[in-house]
Design goal:
single chain, about 120 residues, mainly alpha, about 0% strand, globular
């Protein structure tokens, strides 16, 4: 894994963590599209990696299925998970410092952007 890839993984983890703490989203809405767009993962690889990052205890069996299919890179999971923890802390601090209405609007924009990309993107 080269330095640029590690940098991108840290950005994905931080963004997912910040938005998770800020508006309660992260895995599916942030990590999956980011892994596809930034790192060229296919949908299954991105989904499996996202699940692995959030694995314990909720999605352990789903991650097991992706792992058995050979679709996980545990180094990628470790880097994103570490950055996600830091991002979640700072994202939640940011959300708590703003009015609830502002956070609600940020959440709506994030959801709208993801929906548009999923519907009209490649």
């Amino acid at each position: 894994m080269d330095g640029q890839t590690i940098g991108l993984l840290i950005v994905v983890g931080l963004l997912a963590g910040i938005l998770s703490g800020f508006v309660g989203v992260g895995g599916g809405i942030i990590m999956v599209p980011a892994l596809i767009w930034l790192l060229g993962y296919n949908q299954h690889q991105a989904q499996g990696t996202s699940l692995a990052v959030l694995m314990l205890p909720v999605v352990a069996l789903a991650v097991r299925n992706y792992w058995k299919a050979g679709l996980l890179d545990w180094r990628v999971v470790a880097v994103i998970a570490g950055a996600f923890v830091a991002g979640g802390y700072f994202g939640s601090k940011g959300a708590l410092a703003l009015p609830a209405e502002t956070v609600k609007r940020v959440f709506g924009v994030v959801m709208l952007f993801a929906a548009i990309k999923l519907i009209f993107g490649k």
